[in-house]
Every structure is written in C-alpha cells, then in structure tokens.
Predict the 3D structure of the following.
Amino acid sequence: MKTSGSSNHVPVSLGDRSYQVLIQPGILPQIGRVFHDIGLSGRVGIVTNPVVNELYGRVVLRALKQAGFSPFLVIIPDGEQAKSMHWLSKILDALVTQRLERQDVVLALGGGVVGDVAGFAASVYLRGVPFVQVPTTLVAQVDSSVGGKTGVNHPIGKNLIGAFYQPRVVVIDPQALQTLPKREWIAGLAEVIKYGMIADQKFFEYLEQHVDGLREQAEDVIPTVIRRCCEIKAEVVGGDERESGRRRILNYGHTVGHALETWGRYRTWIHGEAVGIGMVQEAAIAQFLGMCDKEIVERQRDLIQDVGLPIAMPSMTFMDLWGAMQHDKKVVKGQVNCVVPTTIGEVKVVPLVRQRIRQWFTASQPSRVKRLKHAPQALSRPRLSKKK
Ligand SMILES: NC(=O)c1ccc[n+]([C@@H]2O[C@H](COP(=O)([O-])OP(=O)(O)OC[C@H]3O[C@@H](n4cnc5c(N)ncnc54)[C@H](O)[C@@H]3O)[C@@H](O)[C@H]2O)c1
Ligand SMILES: [Zn+2]
C-alpha cells in the first residue's frame, strides 16, 4: 500500500487552489492553531446541525475563541432535507445578519450534508469567502470533504444545483467517528472498499486483513484507512478537478447504487449501502462481459459482506433497474456509462448495452431472489424521496 509515510498531511494539488487534508486523532481542540497556520483570521460562521452541535460544537467554539477568532453558530436541520435552496438561503441570511466579511471564514462541522450546503453557501456569499471542512462522518472524512463538490438538491433530483469550490483546509479528527451510529459507520466502509477496487490493490489487501478492525473501528486501523482514501481521492481530483475524465472512476458502484436509491425512494438503503450492492452488481456485470475474473468478483463480494454491508439486490424487474439508471446525472444522450473493475485496483468506464444487461440480469435472477430476506430495514431518519 502506497502512503505518504507517517505524515498526517495529505496535499490536494490544484494550483492556486491547493490545500492540505490534516488527519489527526484529537485535532479538534487545536483547530484555532490550524486556522492561524494557514493565515485565516476574523469571524467564523460554523454551519452545523443539532446532533453534531451537541457533540462537537462546544469544543470547536472554544478552540476558535481561545485562538482569537470570533465564531458564531448557524444551525440547520439534521438530514438530507437540509441540502435545499431553503436552507442555503437561511445560511446566507445568517451570514448577512452577522455581517461576515470577505476575509472571514465559513466552517462546515458535520457530515456530507452540512459540508455540501455550507460549501455552496461559502462559494456564493460575497462571490466566495474562505471555507473550511471539518467532516464528522466516515463518508465525509473519506469522500465528500475532499475535492470541492458543493451544492444542494432540487425537488426533482439530487445535487442538481452546485459549484466546484475548494476548501482552504480539511481538518479530520478520526476520534469524532466514535459517536457515529453503527449503520452510518458501516455504510461509509463501502466508499472505503471502493478506493481499493478503483486504485490500490495493496490497500484492498490491507482491508481484507483488517476486517475486524474495520467493523469494530479499531484506533490503529481507522486513521491509516482515512489517510489512504484521502490520498487516492486527492490524486484523482488533482488530475481532473471537474470530472471530465479520470474523476469518473470515483463513481464505481454508483450507477447501480444510485438506481437502487432512486428505486427505493431513498428510504430502503442509506447511500453507502446502495453503493456496496452497486459494486457487487457492477463487478458481476464485468464478469458477465468477460472483463473481470470470477475470483475478483468473489473477493470483493466477501469483503463487502464481511464488514457488515448488505449485498443482495431487491426484488425488482429489469425495467425497474434500467429505468432507474436512466435518471443518473451521468447519462449522456441516453447512454448509461458504468465503471467496472478489470482486476482489483483497476477499473474501466464502459457503455452499458441494454440487451447485454438484460441477459446478465436474467442470468443472475435466481440467486437474487434467494437473498432477498437479508434486505435492510427502512430508515428512521428523513431521506429525499424524490427521483434523482
Ligand atoms: N461533495 C461530495 O463530493 C460528496 C461525496 C459523497 C457524498 N456527498 C453527499 O453527502 C451526503 C451524505 O453524507 P453523510 O453520509 O455524511 O450523511 P449526513 O451528513 O446526513 O450524516 C449522517 C448522520 O450522521 C450524523 N452525524 C454526523 N456526524 C456525527 C458524529 N460524529 N456522531 C454522531 N452522529 C453524527 C448526522 O447528523 C446525520 O444524522 C449526501 O447528501 C451526499 O450527496 C457529497
Ligand atoms: Zn458515494
């Protein structure tokens, strides 16, 4: 596994928009020093939600005050519903009322929802103010806080309104994950496994060797895992900030995954769970198309299952699946493009031919029906119910 040694700094190289991802257990109380080190000053609008505020709001507020900053809180609701034009507008109202100025800072404290909407607010307020990501979910620490995609949902679809806007720094405290609900933790592991599959065979082997540590959130495993994921994301994004080429490999598992989310009306699975099932199915498609060996498909499926993720497809028809795939943002002129593995650590983007996918679907049907009873329970927290 290639990593940058023991360094806790992962650089994201994007010319004059370059920044560091700092990964350090217990770093939250030192966030004031981090702000000084990169030359930030003034007022800090901390965007967060009631759950995360209760857990980590005080420590961040205190750390910033002690370092001479003037922080204030902007609280938005918990859940995907907060990633909306309405709550974007509420955040902007708060920044205007507080008279945040151009050199001041917007800080996102929370999961991907808070990071996406706060980042978008920072990108449009005064045509852009300094933005800092402090991610507190596994999905946010290994994925959404790095790379500069920000935005909100439209009632018609997810992530339809947004901007590329890079943070000045990403501050990751792996200890903050200790309070994460188990289901959220395990869902995030799907994105972790994705990085091994798309870019790093050694990392995939490391994950296979540390399944217990992954499930149990072992302190010696988690920072290493987060760092390697951030390195891979930084490397991919550094070469293709706006997703015109290589960045598309990050969508592995997401063609089928997004289709399942849409079909399940965002209630059946949380995102990472749908991506885990998506990776299992997309690898099976690759095998069916003769692009990937059975052994690879099975190793990946075993790892996904062993960390505690669901792998079974629900009872849906081919038209359910194919129809839901057409709603993907990445469909170009009706053509569904899908990232498929060729081996562990390497993927390819291929166009999916309807007839071939129907054949694959029909051939794989029996095993799918058998596994149905293991499908996860419906979610208790609110989720977007509209089509993508
Ligand atoms: N911008 C990107 O590149 C990118 C990438 C992936 C996902 N996303 C977006 O991220 C969002 C999903 O992010 P998410 O999975 O982090 O969900 P989330 O932000 O909804 O957080 C999940 C839940 O965990 C709670 N939580 C957060 N931190 C906690 C902690 N430390 N302890 C206890 N509870 C905590 C939250 O309040 C929430 O209830 C989606 O909107 C998705 O579109 C964006
Ligand atoms: Zn994802």
Summary: The pocket of nicotinamide-adenine-dinucleotide (ligand 1) is lined by residues 49, 51-52, 55, 78, 80, 83, 110-114, 116, 136-137, 139-140, 143-144, 147, 149, 159, 176-177, 179-180, 184, 271, 381 (CB under 6 Å). The longest helix spans residues 182-199. The CA atoms of residues 292 and 342 lie 5 Å apart.
